[in-house]
Amino acid sequence: MRVNVTVNGEQRRADDVWEGESLLFLLRERLGLPGSKNACEQGECGSCTVYLDDVPVCACLVAAGQAQDRVVRTVEGLAQGDELDRVQAAFVSAGAVQCGFCTPGLVVAAHDLISRVPEPSDPEIREALAGNLCRCTGYEKILDAVRLAAREQARP
Prior knowledge:
The protein is an alpha+beta fold. Helices cover 33% and strands 13% of the residues. Helix 2 crosses helix 5 and helix 3 runs parallel beside helix 5. The longest helix has 15 residues. It is globular, with a radius of gyration of 15 Å. The chain starts with a strand and ends with a helix.
């Protein structure tokens, strides 16, 4: 089947997509967007989190065909050209990036939280990131990054 989807503001097309193919496979292997990571393939780790019509989803759980005529925004799509989004920049500044495997999903989840709750409390941050697993950082640097991004957004 053919899948037409808008990804990061650009109309894209993938041919010969098989029925059981995931949106994650479509993004990484067919469209060349390796930012979303393939870790558990069961929706448990959050590494593949992307926006689908402005709603965060685990791309490993979405069939590629479900993206037909829809809008996907990946971690690559958060940046404006060469300029990182404030959440991406905060993760770098706070040292919340170690092996990097969980980072794309955490960045998208944090981006979504801050867009909905401009000044999130620590419990709100923890709840928003609960679906994302990290084995390297111990989470403190990640929490620091989300707090920093929220502060940066609050500045005029």
